[in-house]
Structures are given as structure tokens and as C-alpha cells.
Amino acid sequence: MSVRVRFAPSPTGYLHIGSARSALFNYLYARKVGGKFLLRIEDTDLARSTEESTRSILDGMEWLGLDHDEEIIFQSDNADKHRVTAKKLLAEGKAYRDFTPKAAPTDASVKDAIKDRARANQGEKNMRDNPYRNLSAQESDTRATAGEAFAIRLLVAENGNTCFHDSVYGVQERDYAETEDLVLLRSDGHPLYNLAVVCDDIEMQITHVIRGQDHLTNTHKQILIYEALGVTPPTFAHLPLIMAPGKGKLSKRKHGEIVSLTTYRDAGFVPAAFRNFLALLGWSAGEEKEIYSLDELIEKFSFDGIHRSNAIFNFKENDPRHWTDDKALWMNAEYIRTMPLAELLPMVKAELKAAKLWREEYDQESIALSADIPSTALLGADGRPETVALENRQIGSHSWYIHTVDLIRSRFFTLKDFSSQGRAYFSEDFDFDPAAVAKNLGKFPELREWLPVLADRFASEFSESSPPYEGGVAEGRGGSLPYTEENIETVIKAFTEEKGSKLGVIMNGARTLLTGVAVGPSMLSVFEVIGLERTLMRLRSQVAWNTVIET
RNA sequence: GUCCGGUUCGUCUAGGGGUUAGGACACCGCCCUUUCACGGCGGCAACACGGGUUCAAAUCCCGUACCGGAUACCA
Predict the structure, then answer these.
(1) Contact A229, A85 (CB under 8 A)
(2) Which residue in A332, A358, A217 sits closest to A277, CA to CA?
(3) DSSP conformation class of A544
(4) Nucleotide nearest to A331 (CA to C1')
(5) Gap from A300 CA to B59 C1', in Å?
(6) Would you list the DSSP string of A242-298?
(7) Does the nearest atom of strand B lie within 7 Å of A76's Cβ?
(8) CA A544 to chain centre
(9) A4: which strand partners?
(10) How far apart are alpha carbons A392 and A408 in whole angstroms?
(11) For strand A170-175 and strand A183-185, is the pairing parallel, antiparallel, or unpaired?
């Protein structure tokens, strides 16, 4: 029988990164063995389920590139079948009616109530002491016919145990005495989770159930249902949990957006990078290697590589530099600076569009490049993402945009950086980072006089500049030197010497005026990419200087 | 309480009787750019504790501690 796995989230909020990882592992396993990866929305909790969150889950999976097979199953559509199954078990004497009035819901901290009750029982509770357990079929029928409300509970045997081999946790045994006669059907006719899951998994012909370790005890209950139904249970593989720093639960309530997959999409993560990061949380191929393409993950995936211990998703609240797991951030930066340009370009385009920095002429250039680079060439021979060598791609002088993206990506952590840190490359309307201004301009007041002079020097030395931007003033082409890195270096060095200053001071001052920020690629490339005319304007501009805080 | 898991650098992890306990991130330093970064090199830093078994234990066994999960007419 071919493998069929499923991801079965309940649509009661956005896609949690823990769920996303479960989905990923299901996906990887299915793709590895050539099986089917199915999706089932467990929307039986009508009160909490929303269409919006179903949408969000679907979006999240699409973003991660986890395409599912076959039609999406909505569990609520199967409620009738679940009821039929419960009644069948009742008729067969494998379940019984419980006429105990439904307990008043303790809305205040349900978990604590359960805990308290369990503690009160001191572990001595007899799971078989339900008074209706041994009611005669006749009396049970009579009371039911009379209209008395009842729940249907599974009749769990007195002696014995449930046992299964978990692909991750090994042999799991549980004495029947530890398992109550679980409710299959609520007194209002609503099928409960364990019954619904088993029925659906049977109907969907699921062969492997891969889910969070928090379901380990549910598995024993579900096996009892499988046995009552006379169906062989699927193989189970439980995954370790993803915890918050301090080993606490990683919850929406306590940690907010950090646990939502969409946060990473919106924060400028490259899907492949986040997927890569997620795969390495609780799983390892046993190699000294961090970067894995999707194909490699599929190829290397195995249950043996999954841990039994929980992993901590490490982040520091209130620390912008470490707002999420450092490794995730690093991995994203790694992808941004090393992935094939042809794959990065569309993401940068989307980002620039969103920031209203996009220009149509950039597109012509992207297309020319994409055609030249097979998008399947994800990884180089050494297993690392391949960097595209622009020189070899016959990028003409018109490819300013692509050249610029390739240049500035080496210092970026997220796609957002292209429109924030990198804004000055694409627009005249950019801000100056106060820290950069203070460090590189504020400390060197002489630059206020010098940099415009440097601009004059440039104007008289250089001859040509043709970047695609608007608002440039066609002036000062008195010189004959082409505006290239080599020539810029010569001119600046001479200027620095003349002033008896240090190159670093001039360079960093210019960097701040030209880009608004303190970090970036080699300054010589920055001059070139910004172009002569914009360089002149920005070196002469007083805007940044006016933001220097006088001390 | 009971049941079930777990415990290797701060974090993700490799290793599963003999290793200088390896890698990655983070952090720190040096080098490279008469510049910030990127990059290169290096540093700091771990086998929870106690008993056993053994010539030899991070590794196997037992116990303790701590952490997590589960214990619903929730999913």
C-alpha cells in the first residue's frame, strides 16, 4: 500500500510554527517515499473555527512550498459518518450510553480544573467505575427511547494494555487502567476529537500519522477505537515539541506574533530559508551542514533523525537585533546573499513594489537575466547555494538594477532591508539613520565643508554617469575620467591626502550622505552604483547635516 | 497525584564503551579592505547529579533532581 500522510490543523488561529513544522515533516516524508500528502481541516469546534484562519493556514503552507495532494477534507463535513460509527459501536456492545448529566463547564482555567480533579483522585481512580457501564442493553434502550440525554463512551476492557511502536519514541505501552472510557459522542450528538480523527484517518486511508508529541496519549485512545472498529492502526511518528526560551510553552497568548508563520513572511523571510530552519528544529541528518535545499531535505529525511527531546525556539523579546531565533535570521541572510539571483529578484521586486520603489524598467533587466539562469541550479557542487557571477552573465551597462541588488544583498538579513536599508539606492527620498549621522558626521564637523568640495572635485574630474534615476542634474561633467571604482579611488585618496585626513573618515562620511546608513558594500562600488550625478547632489546636500545633534 | 517522555556549549545539534567531546548560530578578538560590513582565521563555552557494570562510561543499568507532555461531553 502506498504511503498516505496528512496534516490536520484546526483552524482556530494562524498557522503556528510548530504546526508548520509538523506539516513540513509530513510533506518531506510523503515526497521522499512517493506517497500522498493530504490536508484535513479539523473544524469540528464550531465556536472557535474560522474561515479566515483556514485561509491563513493555506497561505502559510503555500508560502512554505508545501503543496498538498487531493482535495482538502473538512472534518465537519463528516460529522454524520462519525455519529454512525459511534452508534455502530454502541450496537455492537463496544460502547455504552452514559446518562450522567453533562457537567457544568468550568470556563475558568479548564486545565487547572482537570489537574485539581486528577490530584484529588490521587491516582487511585478506577477508570471502570461508571455506573452506566454495565447497564443492561434493554434498560439503556428504554431510557434512550424515553428521551433521556446520553453520551456514548467507548467500553474499554478491564485488563490489558494498548501498545504501539512509535517511529520516533519506540515502543509505547499503556495499561487500560490508565485510560478512561472515553466519550465518543457528546450528549448533544457532537462527535469528539478522537473518534473524528480515527474515522477520518481510516476513510482517507492514512498509513502514517506524523504529529506532535502532545498526542502521545491520544494515540492510545485512538488505538482502542481502531481495535473496536476492527481496523489495523496506521504507523505513528510523534514529533518533539518546539518550546519557548525557558522551556515554557510557545503560545500565542504569551508570545504573540513570534509564533505565527505569517510573521516571518511579513518580516521579509525567504520561504526556503525558514523552511530550512524549521527542518533543523528537532531533526538532523547527522551531518555538519546547515543549508539544505528542499530536494536535499526530502532525500535525507528519515524518522531516525528525529529527536525525542524538545527544541527551544530562541529569541529575545524587546531586542530588535534578536527579535527571533538568531539562527533563523542568519539562515535568511545566508539565503539572501547566496541564492541564485534569478530566484531572489522576484522577491526583491515584490518588496520594492510594496514600498513603492519599483520602476518598470528594472523588469526588462530581470527578465534578461532570468532567461540566462536555470532556476533549478539551486546548489553548487559543494552543496552551498550558488552565487551567480554577474560578469559571466553578459549583463550590459543597462543592468544597473540587477548589479545593485547583487551588490547590496551581501549585507542584508531580510527582504525588508532592500526597501529600508537599501532605500537610498532606489529613491531620493530616504532617511538618515541618526546613529550613522552621529558616528560618521557628527564627530567630524570638518566634513560639512569638505564633502561639498569633494563633490566639486568629482564634477571637475569625471565625465560620465548614467544610472536610471530621476531628478539628476546634468552638470559638472568637466572632466574626462570615467566614473569607475578605480578612478574614484584615485581622486578620493588624493583629496584625503590634501586635507590631511583619513580615508575612513571621508569614506564613512560619504557613505552616510549617500546611503543614509552606516553599513554597506565597499564604498567605491557604492559611489559607482549611486552614479555621479546623485553622488554630487548628496555630497552637497545639507539635509543630513541639519539632523546632527549639537553637543 | 498518576502515566509517558526528555536532559551534550547560552541556543540548534554531532557523537552512543577508549574522541584534545565535533559543527552551526550568538558573543568576543585578530586579519583583510588607509572605511562600516561581507569574508578569512581564532577564542570563550557543554556531556544534570549520585551509584553501579567495566581495564575503560558522555555513551550501558539503577536511582535522584529538574524540565516537558498527557490526564475534558477541547482540539
Answers:
(1) yes
(2) A332
(3) T
(4) B25
(5) 25
(6) EE-TTS-B--HHHHGGGGBHHHHHHTT--HHHHHHHHHTSSB--SSS-----HHHHH
(7) no
(8) 37
(9) A36
(10) 19
(11) unpaired
The label of the residue with cell 538532523 reads A284
Q: Count CB atoms within 10 A of the CB of residue A121.
A: 10
Q: Residue A154: beta bridge partners?
A: A95
Residue A261 CA from chain centroid, whole number: 4
Say if CB A161 and CB A177 are below 8 A apart: no
Q: Which nucleotides of B are covered by protein (CB under 7 A)?
A: 1-8, 10-15, 22-27, 33-39, 67-75
Question: What Rg, from alpha-carbon coordinates, does chain A have?
Answer: 32
| Alpha-carbon span A413 to A419, nearest angstrom | 12
Cβ A471 to strand B below 7 Å = no
pLDDT digits (tens, 9 = 90+) for A297-330: 999 999 999 999 999 999 998 888 899 999 999 9
| pLDDT mean values, one per 10 residues, chain A (551 residues) | 94 94 98 98 89 95 97 96 97 94 67 69 73 90 92 95 95 93 95 97 98 97 97 97 93 89 96 98 94 97 96 91 95 96 95 94 65 38 35 46 93 96 94 91 92 92 57 50 88 92 93 95 93 92 81 47
Q: Is the ipTM of this complex over 0.90?
A: yes
Gap from A495 CA to B21 C1', Å: 55
> Of all protein residues, which has its CA closest to the C1' atom of B12?
A281
Angle CA(A519)–CA(A524)–CA(A526) in degrees, nearest 5? 55
- Residue A522 CA, nucleotide B33 C1', distance (Å): 8
> Residues A337, A410: contact at Cβ < 8 Å?
yes
Q: Could you tell me which of A341, A283, A312 has the C-alpha nearest to residue A29?
A: A283
* A10 neighbors A43 (Cβ within 8 angstroms): yes
Nearest C-alpha neighbor of A26 from the set A209, A196, A200: A209
- DSSP 8-state assignment for residue A379: B
Residue A320 Cβ under 7 A from any strand B atom: no
Q: What is the pLDDT of residue A51?
A: 92
Q: Is the CB of A174 under 7 A from strand B?
A: yes
Give CA A78 to chain center in angstroms. 31
**Residue A204: closest CA among A354, A26, A381:** A26
Which window residues (7-36, chain A) lie with Cβ within 7 Å of strand B?
Answer: 10, 12
The pLDDT tens digits for A125-178 are 788 888 899 888 899 989 999 999 999 999 999 999 999 999 999 999 999 999
In this structure, is the CB of residue A325 within 7 Å of any atom belonging to strand B? yes
Identify the residues numbered 393 to 452 in chain A whose C-beta atom is closer than 7 Å to any atom of strand B: 410-411
Q: What is the rounded distance in angstroms from the CA atom of residue A507 to the CA atom of residue A526?
A: 10
Q: Is the CB of A484 under 7 A from strand B?
A: no
> Could you identify the residue whose CA is nearest to the C1' atom of nucleotide B24?
A290
Query: Residue A89: its pLDDT value, please?
Result: 97
